[in-house]
Amino acid sequence: MPFTDIQEDIFERRESIVRSYCRNFDTLFTSAKGSEMTDANGKTYIDFLAGCSTLNYGHNDPDMKKALIAHIERDGIAHGLDMYTDAKAEWLKAFEEYILKPRGMDDYKIMMTGPTGTNAVEAAVKLARKVTGRTNVIAFTNGFHGMTMGALALTGNAGKRGGAGTGSVGLTGTTHLPYANAFGEDIDTLDQIEMMLDNPSSGVDAPAAFIFEPIQGEGGLNAASAKWMKGIADLAKKHGALLIVDDIQAGCGRSGDYFGFEIAGIKPDIITQAKSLSGMGLPFACALIKKEHDIWKPAEHNGTFRGNNHAFVTGKVALEKFWKDDAFMKDVRKKADILEAGLKKIVDVIPGSRLKGRGMMQGVDVTSGDIASEICSRAFEKGLIIETSGADDEVVKVLAALTIPEETLSKGLEILLEAAKETIDNSKVAAE
Fold first, then answer.
1. Domain that includes residue 162, residue range
2. How many domains is the chain built from?
3. pLDDT tens per residue, range 409-418
4. Model-level pTM?
5. Are the C-beta atoms of 362 and 221 separated by less than 8 Å?
6. The domain spanning residue 175 has which CATH number?
Protein backbone atom coordinates (compact mmCIF):
# COMPACT_ATOMS: atom_id res chain seq x y z
CA MET A 1 0.00 0.00 0.00
CA PRO A 2 1.43 3.38 -0.98
CA PHE A 3 2.38 5.76 1.77
CA THR A 4 0.82 9.18 2.27
CA ASP A 5 1.07 11.92 -0.30
CA ILE A 6 2.96 14.10 2.18
CA GLN A 7 5.64 11.47 2.71
CA GLU A 8 5.91 10.72 -0.98
CA ASP A 9 6.22 14.41 -1.83
CA ILE A 10 9.56 14.85 -0.06
CA PHE A 11 11.12 12.06 -2.12
CA GLU A 12 9.74 13.44 -5.37
CA ARG A 13 10.85 16.97 -4.55
CA ARG A 14 14.28 16.28 -3.10
CA GLU A 15 15.66 12.87 -3.99
CA SER A 16 17.43 12.35 -7.30
CA ILE A 17 15.59 10.64 -10.12
CA VAL A 18 18.38 8.06 -10.15
CA ARG A 19 16.66 6.17 -7.29
CA SER A 20 15.54 2.73 -8.35
CA TYR A 21 14.43 0.09 -5.81
CA CYS A 22 11.77 2.38 -4.39
CA ARG A 23 10.07 2.45 -7.80
CA ASN A 24 9.43 -1.29 -7.59
CA PHE A 25 8.65 -1.37 -3.86
CA ASP A 26 6.38 1.65 -3.50
CA THR A 27 5.84 1.86 0.23
CA LEU A 28 7.49 3.45 3.26
CA PHE A 29 9.38 0.84 5.26
CA THR A 30 9.72 1.52 8.97
CA SER A 31 11.13 -1.63 10.60
CA ALA A 32 12.66 -5.00 9.84
CA LYS A 33 13.53 -8.15 11.75
CA GLY A 34 14.94 -11.44 10.53
CA SER A 35 13.52 -12.06 7.05
CA GLU A 36 10.59 -9.66 7.24
CA MET A 37 10.11 -5.94 6.64
CA THR A 38 7.17 -3.83 7.81
CA ASP A 39 5.86 -0.63 6.24
CA ALA A 40 4.18 2.45 7.70
CA ASN A 41 0.76 0.89 7.15
CA GLY A 42 1.63 -2.14 9.26
CA LYS A 43 1.91 -4.54 6.32
CA THR A 44 4.66 -7.14 6.64
CA TYR A 45 6.65 -8.44 3.69
CA ILE A 46 8.88 -11.50 3.35
CA ASP A 47 12.28 -10.29 2.17
CA PHE A 48 13.77 -12.25 -0.74
CA LEU A 49 16.18 -9.40 -1.54
CA ALA A 50 18.16 -9.09 1.72
CA GLY A 51 19.84 -5.87 0.70
CA CYS A 52 21.18 -7.53 -2.46
CA SER A 53 22.99 -10.09 -0.30
CA THR A 54 24.09 -7.50 2.26
CA LEU A 55 21.88 -9.10 4.91
CA ASN A 56 22.88 -12.76 4.68
CA TYR A 57 22.17 -13.10 8.42
CA GLY A 58 18.84 -11.24 8.24
CA HIS A 59 17.73 -7.87 9.53
CA ASN A 60 18.82 -6.75 12.99
CA ASP A 61 20.31 -9.98 14.29
CA PRO A 62 19.75 -9.77 18.07
CA ASP A 63 23.31 -10.75 19.03
CA MET A 64 24.88 -8.27 16.63
CA LYS A 65 22.48 -5.56 17.76
CA LYS A 66 23.29 -6.23 21.42
CA ALA A 67 27.05 -6.05 20.76
CA LEU A 68 26.73 -2.82 18.78
CA ILE A 69 24.59 -1.12 21.41
CA ALA A 70 27.07 -2.13 24.12
CA HIS A 71 29.96 -0.76 22.02
CA ILE A 72 28.18 2.57 21.53
CA GLU A 73 27.14 2.84 25.17
CA ARG A 74 30.75 2.45 26.36
CA ASP A 75 31.86 5.19 23.93
CA GLY A 76 33.70 2.69 21.77
CA ILE A 77 35.46 4.03 18.69
CA ALA A 78 33.07 4.68 15.81
CA HIS A 79 35.41 6.07 13.18
CA GLY A 80 39.08 5.19 13.33
CA LEU A 81 40.58 5.78 9.87
CA ASP A 82 43.12 2.93 9.76
CA MET A 83 44.35 3.42 13.31
CA TYR A 84 44.73 0.44 15.61
CA THR A 85 41.52 -0.14 17.55
CA ASP A 86 40.32 -2.93 19.79
CA ALA A 87 37.31 -3.59 17.54
CA LYS A 88 39.48 -4.01 14.45
CA ALA A 89 41.90 -6.28 16.29
CA GLU A 90 39.06 -8.49 17.47
CA TRP A 91 37.57 -8.77 13.98
CA LEU A 92 40.95 -9.58 12.42
CA LYS A 93 41.58 -12.31 15.00
CA ALA A 94 38.11 -13.80 14.42
CA PHE A 95 38.51 -13.75 10.63
CA GLU A 96 41.90 -15.40 10.94
CA GLU A 97 40.58 -18.10 13.27
CA TYR A 98 37.26 -18.94 11.60
CA ILE A 99 37.88 -18.22 7.91
CA LEU A 100 41.54 -18.12 6.91
CA LYS A 101 43.22 -20.84 8.98
CA PRO A 102 40.57 -23.57 8.46
CA ARG A 103 40.93 -23.06 4.69
CA GLY A 104 44.71 -23.07 4.60
CA MET A 105 44.81 -19.36 3.75
CA ASP A 106 47.44 -18.15 6.19
CA ASP A 107 49.34 -16.56 3.30
CA TYR A 108 46.82 -13.72 2.87
CA LYS A 109 46.93 -10.14 4.15
CA ILE A 110 43.73 -8.14 4.70
CA MET A 111 43.46 -4.70 3.16
CA MET A 112 40.73 -2.40 4.44
CA THR A 113 39.73 -0.61 1.27
CA GLY A 114 36.80 1.58 2.10
CA PRO A 115 33.15 0.94 2.74
CA THR A 116 31.77 -0.65 -0.43
CA GLY A 117 32.46 -3.41 -2.91
CA THR A 118 33.46 -1.04 -5.67
CA ASN A 119 36.22 0.32 -3.39
CA ALA A 120 37.58 -3.21 -2.98
CA VAL A 121 37.50 -3.83 -6.73
CA GLU A 122 39.26 -0.55 -7.49
CA ALA A 123 42.01 -1.39 -5.00
CA ALA A 124 42.39 -4.93 -6.37
CA VAL A 125 42.77 -3.82 -9.97
CA LYS A 126 45.08 -0.97 -9.03
CA LEU A 127 47.34 -3.36 -7.14
CA ALA A 128 47.34 -5.93 -9.96
CA ARG A 129 48.56 -3.29 -12.38
CA LYS A 130 51.22 -2.18 -9.90
CA VAL A 131 52.43 -5.76 -9.35
CA THR A 132 52.57 -6.75 -13.02
CA GLY A 133 53.41 -3.45 -14.69
CA ARG A 134 50.60 -4.14 -17.16
CA THR A 135 47.35 -2.30 -17.85
CA ASN A 136 44.86 -4.70 -19.42
CA VAL A 137 42.39 -6.46 -17.13
CA ILE A 138 40.29 -9.31 -18.49
CA ALA A 139 36.70 -9.25 -17.28
CA PHE A 140 33.77 -11.31 -18.49
CA THR A 141 30.45 -10.92 -20.23
CA ASN A 142 27.52 -10.14 -17.92
CA GLY A 143 29.89 -9.29 -15.09
CA PHE A 144 29.11 -6.56 -12.56
CA HIS A 145 31.88 -5.09 -10.42
CA GLY A 146 30.77 -1.64 -9.31
CA MET A 147 29.87 1.89 -10.37
CA THR A 148 33.10 3.87 -9.99
CA MET A 149 34.96 4.38 -13.25
CA GLY A 150 37.50 1.57 -12.90
CA ALA A 151 34.98 -0.96 -11.63
CA LEU A 152 32.45 0.21 -14.21
CA ALA A 153 34.98 -0.43 -16.98
CA LEU A 154 34.98 -4.07 -15.84
CA THR A 155 31.17 -4.18 -15.83
CA GLY A 156 29.34 -5.42 -18.91
CA ASN A 157 25.87 -3.92 -18.38
CA ALA A 158 25.21 -1.29 -21.05
CA GLY A 159 22.71 0.62 -18.91
CA LYS A 160 25.16 0.97 -16.05
CA ARG A 161 28.01 1.91 -18.39
CA GLY A 162 25.78 4.55 -19.93
CA GLY A 163 25.67 6.29 -16.57
CA ALA A 164 29.26 7.40 -17.08
CA GLY A 165 28.00 9.78 -19.75
CA THR A 166 31.18 9.35 -21.74
CA GLY A 167 30.46 6.40 -23.97
CA SER A 168 33.57 4.25 -24.01
CA VAL A 169 35.81 7.19 -23.13
CA GLY A 170 37.15 6.66 -19.61
CA LEU A 171 35.96 3.05 -19.46
CA THR A 172 39.27 1.70 -20.67
CA GLY A 173 41.99 -0.78 -19.82
CA THR A 174 39.67 -3.77 -19.98
CA THR A 175 39.00 -6.67 -22.33
CA HIS A 176 35.68 -8.50 -22.01
CA LEU A 177 35.75 -12.20 -22.83
CA PRO A 178 32.97 -14.83 -22.64
CA TYR A 179 32.00 -16.08 -19.19
CA ALA A 180 31.35 -19.74 -18.50
CA ASN A 181 28.56 -21.13 -20.73
CA ALA A 182 28.12 -17.76 -22.41
CA PHE A 183 27.44 -19.58 -25.69
CA GLY A 184 25.51 -22.46 -24.13
CA GLU A 185 26.31 -25.57 -22.14
CA ASP A 186 28.01 -27.33 -25.06
CA ILE A 187 30.64 -24.69 -25.75
CA ASP A 188 33.70 -24.44 -23.50
CA THR A 189 34.70 -20.79 -23.39
CA LEU A 190 38.03 -21.73 -21.81
CA ASP A 191 39.23 -22.96 -25.21
CA GLN A 192 38.23 -19.69 -26.85
CA ILE A 193 39.85 -17.58 -24.15
CA GLU A 194 43.08 -19.57 -24.34
CA MET A 195 43.14 -19.18 -28.12
CA MET A 196 42.74 -15.40 -27.81
CA LEU A 197 45.55 -15.16 -25.29
CA ASP A 198 47.91 -17.46 -27.18
CA ASN A 199 47.37 -15.67 -30.51
CA PRO A 200 49.73 -12.67 -30.74
CA SER A 201 47.40 -11.12 -33.33
CA SER A 202 44.16 -11.46 -31.34
CA GLY A 203 44.33 -7.85 -30.17
CA VAL A 204 44.20 -8.89 -26.52
CA ASP A 205 47.07 -7.31 -24.64
CA ALA A 206 48.95 -9.31 -22.00
CA PRO A 207 46.75 -9.07 -18.93
CA ALA A 208 47.56 -7.66 -15.54
CA ALA A 209 44.71 -9.68 -14.10
CA PHE A 210 41.61 -11.74 -14.67
CA ILE A 211 38.56 -10.85 -12.60
CA PHE A 212 35.37 -12.89 -12.32
CA GLU A 213 32.41 -13.58 -10.04
CA PRO A 214 31.86 -17.23 -9.08
CA ILE A 215 28.14 -16.59 -9.51
CA GLN A 216 27.06 -13.52 -11.44
CA GLY A 217 24.29 -11.84 -9.45
CA GLU A 218 23.35 -8.81 -11.51
CA GLY A 219 24.29 -10.63 -14.70
CA GLY A 220 21.53 -13.19 -14.35
CA LEU A 221 22.68 -15.82 -11.84
CA ASN A 222 25.21 -17.39 -14.19
CA ALA A 223 27.21 -19.88 -12.12
CA ALA A 224 30.73 -20.87 -13.11
CA SER A 225 31.66 -24.53 -12.78
CA ALA A 226 34.61 -25.67 -10.71
CA LYS A 227 36.32 -26.69 -13.96
CA TRP A 228 35.90 -23.24 -15.49
CA MET A 229 37.16 -21.40 -12.41
CA LYS A 230 40.16 -23.73 -12.19
CA GLY A 231 40.80 -23.17 -15.91
CA ILE A 232 40.84 -19.38 -15.51
CA ALA A 233 43.21 -19.73 -12.56
CA ASP A 234 45.54 -21.83 -14.71
CA LEU A 235 45.40 -19.32 -17.57
CA ALA A 236 46.22 -16.46 -15.21
CA LYS A 237 49.28 -18.30 -13.95
CA LYS A 238 50.35 -19.28 -17.47
CA HIS A 239 50.22 -15.68 -18.68
CA GLY A 240 51.78 -14.05 -15.64
CA ALA A 241 48.56 -12.35 -14.56
CA LEU A 242 46.94 -12.08 -11.15
CA LEU A 243 43.65 -13.82 -10.46
CA ILE A 244 41.06 -11.59 -8.78
CA VAL A 245 37.85 -13.21 -7.61
CA ASP A 246 35.01 -10.78 -6.95
CA ASP A 247 33.23 -12.57 -4.10
CA ILE A 248 31.26 -9.54 -2.99
CA GLN A 249 27.79 -11.00 -3.58
CA ALA A 250 28.46 -14.75 -3.73
CA GLY A 251 30.64 -14.72 -0.61
CA CYS A 252 29.90 -14.97 3.12
CA GLY A 253 28.10 -18.27 2.69
CA ARG A 254 25.62 -17.56 -0.07
CA SER A 255 27.06 -20.16 -2.46
CA GLY A 256 26.95 -22.92 0.15
CA ASP A 257 30.56 -22.31 1.22
CA TYR A 258 32.08 -19.22 2.79
CA PHE A 259 33.78 -18.32 -0.50
CA GLY A 260 32.00 -18.82 -3.80
CA PHE A 261 35.11 -20.32 -5.39
CA GLU A 262 35.86 -23.00 -2.77
CA ILE A 263 34.40 -25.79 -4.91
CA ALA A 264 37.17 -25.14 -7.45
CA GLY A 265 40.00 -25.61 -4.96
CA ILE A 266 41.76 -22.46 -6.16
CA LYS A 267 43.69 -19.80 -4.26
CA PRO A 268 43.12 -16.42 -5.96
CA ASP A 269 45.80 -13.77 -5.75
CA ILE A 270 43.23 -11.21 -4.59
CA ILE A 271 39.70 -11.72 -3.25
CA THR A 272 37.28 -8.84 -2.89
CA GLN A 273 34.64 -8.94 -0.17
CA ALA A 274 31.89 -6.57 0.97
CA LYS A 275 28.07 -6.72 1.36
CA SER A 276 27.53 -9.19 4.25
CA LEU A 277 31.02 -8.80 5.70
CA SER A 278 29.70 -6.66 8.58
CA GLY A 279 26.91 -9.14 9.26
CA MET A 280 24.36 -6.42 9.86
CA GLY A 281 24.32 -4.32 6.72
CA LEU A 282 26.90 -1.78 7.84
CA PRO A 283 29.38 -0.57 5.19
CA PHE A 284 32.49 -2.76 5.25
CA ALA A 285 34.71 -4.01 2.42
CA CYS A 286 38.17 -5.48 2.16
CA ALA A 287 40.56 -7.18 -0.23
CA LEU A 288 42.38 -10.37 0.71
CA ILE A 289 45.84 -10.23 -0.86
CA LYS A 290 48.46 -12.95 -1.10
CA LYS A 291 51.41 -11.75 0.95
CA GLU A 292 53.84 -11.66 -1.98
CA HIS A 293 51.60 -9.14 -3.77
CA ASP A 294 51.21 -6.77 -0.82
CA ILE A 295 53.71 -4.28 -2.23
CA TRP A 296 51.92 -1.05 -1.33
CA LYS A 297 53.85 1.80 0.19
CA PRO A 298 52.24 3.19 3.37
CA ALA A 299 49.27 5.43 2.46
CA GLU A 300 49.78 4.71 -1.24
CA HIS A 301 46.12 3.68 -1.28
CA ASN A 302 43.81 4.89 1.45
CA GLY A 303 40.25 5.90 2.22
CA THR A 304 38.57 7.88 4.95
CA PHE A 305 36.06 5.21 5.86
CA ARG A 306 38.36 2.22 6.18
CA GLY A 307 37.79 2.11 9.91
CA ASN A 308 34.08 1.52 10.45
CA ASN A 309 34.43 0.08 13.93
CA HIS A 310 30.70 -0.51 14.26
CA ALA A 311 31.03 -2.92 11.32
CA PHE A 312 34.02 -4.60 12.97
CA VAL A 313 31.92 -5.20 16.10
CA THR A 314 28.97 -6.77 14.31
CA GLY A 315 31.20 -8.59 11.84
CA LYS A 316 33.04 -10.30 14.70
CA VAL A 317 29.74 -11.52 16.13
CA ALA A 318 28.75 -12.91 12.72
CA LEU A 319 31.99 -14.87 12.49
CA GLU A 320 31.70 -16.26 16.01
CA LYS A 321 28.01 -17.06 15.72
CA PHE A 322 27.89 -18.65 12.28
CA TRP A 323 31.40 -19.80 11.32
CA LYS A 324 32.89 -21.53 14.35
CA ASP A 325 31.93 -24.90 12.82
CA ASP A 326 30.14 -26.29 9.73
CA ALA A 327 26.64 -26.39 11.24
CA PHE A 328 25.57 -23.14 9.58
CA MET A 329 26.71 -24.23 6.11
CA LYS A 330 24.91 -27.55 6.47
CA ASP A 331 21.74 -25.62 7.26
CA VAL A 332 22.28 -23.27 4.30
CA ARG A 333 22.71 -26.20 1.91
CA LYS A 334 19.50 -27.74 3.21
CA LYS A 335 17.66 -24.47 2.55
CA ALA A 336 19.25 -24.30 -0.90
CA ASP A 337 17.62 -27.64 -1.69
CA ILE A 338 14.25 -26.28 -0.51
CA LEU A 339 14.77 -23.20 -2.67
CA GLU A 340 15.66 -25.26 -5.72
CA ALA A 341 12.61 -27.49 -5.29
CA GLY A 342 10.35 -24.45 -4.98
CA LEU A 343 11.81 -22.78 -8.05
CA LYS A 344 11.41 -25.95 -10.11
CA LYS A 345 7.65 -25.64 -9.56
CA ILE A 346 7.84 -22.22 -11.22
CA VAL A 347 9.85 -23.65 -14.10
CA ASP A 348 7.06 -26.20 -14.59
CA VAL A 349 4.44 -23.48 -15.15
CA ILE A 350 6.42 -21.13 -17.40
CA PRO A 351 7.18 -22.51 -20.88
CA GLY A 352 10.84 -22.23 -21.85
CA SER A 353 11.99 -21.16 -18.38
CA ARG A 354 15.01 -22.64 -16.60
CA LEU A 355 16.65 -22.75 -13.20
CA LYS A 356 19.83 -20.71 -12.69
CA GLY A 357 22.41 -20.11 -9.96
CA ARG A 358 23.77 -22.10 -7.04
CA GLY A 359 23.25 -22.40 -3.29
CA MET A 360 21.11 -19.64 -1.81
CA MET A 361 21.70 -17.58 -4.93
CA GLN A 362 19.20 -19.07 -7.36
CA GLY A 363 16.39 -17.95 -9.59
CA VAL A 364 14.41 -18.65 -12.73
CA ASP A 365 15.06 -17.35 -16.22
CA VAL A 366 11.47 -16.74 -17.33
CA THR A 367 12.54 -15.81 -20.90
CA SER A 368 11.32 -12.22 -20.78
CA GLY A 369 12.01 -9.09 -18.78
CA ASP A 370 8.34 -8.14 -19.01
CA ILE A 371 7.25 -11.48 -17.55
CA ALA A 372 9.88 -11.32 -14.78
CA SER A 373 8.88 -7.76 -13.89
CA GLU A 374 5.20 -8.70 -13.74
CA ILE A 375 5.91 -11.70 -11.52
CA CYS A 376 7.92 -9.57 -9.09
CA SER A 377 5.26 -6.84 -9.10
CA ARG A 378 2.48 -9.33 -8.32
CA ALA A 379 4.64 -10.94 -5.64
CA PHE A 380 5.13 -7.57 -3.95
CA GLU A 381 1.38 -6.98 -3.87
CA LYS A 382 1.08 -10.33 -2.10
CA GLY A 383 3.76 -9.48 0.47
CA LEU A 384 7.05 -10.64 -1.06
CA ILE A 385 10.06 -8.45 -1.88
CA ILE A 386 12.01 -9.86 -4.83
CA GLU A 387 13.85 -8.42 -7.83
CA THR A 388 14.97 -9.28 -11.33
CA SER A 389 18.43 -9.60 -12.86
CA GLY A 390 20.08 -10.49 -16.17
CA ALA A 391 20.94 -8.64 -19.35
CA ASP A 392 17.24 -8.07 -20.08
CA ASP A 393 16.00 -8.41 -16.50
CA GLU A 394 14.67 -11.82 -17.49
CA VAL A 395 15.67 -13.66 -14.30
CA VAL A 396 13.57 -13.68 -11.13
CA LYS A 397 16.31 -13.71 -8.49
CA VAL A 398 16.03 -15.04 -4.93
CA LEU A 399 18.51 -13.63 -2.42
CA ALA A 400 16.78 -14.57 0.81
CA ALA A 401 18.74 -14.33 4.06
CA LEU A 402 20.71 -17.48 4.82
CA THR A 403 19.08 -17.51 8.26
CA ILE A 404 15.53 -17.45 6.92
CA PRO A 405 13.29 -19.98 8.71
CA GLU A 406 12.30 -22.88 6.47
CA GLU A 407 8.63 -22.07 7.03
CA THR A 408 9.15 -18.47 5.89
CA LEU A 409 11.18 -19.59 2.89
CA SER A 410 8.44 -22.01 1.84
CA LYS A 411 5.76 -19.34 2.32
CA GLY A 412 7.71 -16.91 0.15
CA LEU A 413 8.12 -19.55 -2.56
CA GLU A 414 4.38 -20.20 -2.47
CA ILE A 415 3.71 -16.50 -3.00
CA LEU A 416 6.19 -16.46 -5.87
CA LEU A 417 4.52 -19.48 -7.49
CA GLU A 418 1.11 -17.83 -7.20
CA ALA A 419 2.48 -14.66 -8.80
CA ALA A 420 4.04 -16.69 -11.63
CA LYS A 421 0.82 -18.61 -12.30
CA GLU A 422 -1.25 -15.41 -12.35
CA THR A 423 1.22 -13.75 -14.70
CA ILE A 424 1.17 -16.66 -17.15
CA ASP A 425 -2.63 -17.00 -16.96
CA ASN A 426 -2.99 -13.28 -17.60
CA SER A 427 -0.63 -13.52 -20.58
CA LYS A 428 -2.70 -16.36 -22.04
CA VAL A 429 -5.91 -14.35 -21.65
CA ALA A 430 -4.31 -11.30 -23.26
CA ALA A 431 -3.12 -13.43 -26.18
CA GLU A 432 -6.61 -14.79 -26.73
1. 106-305
2. 1
3. 999 999 999 9
4. 0.96
5. yes
6. 3.40.640.10
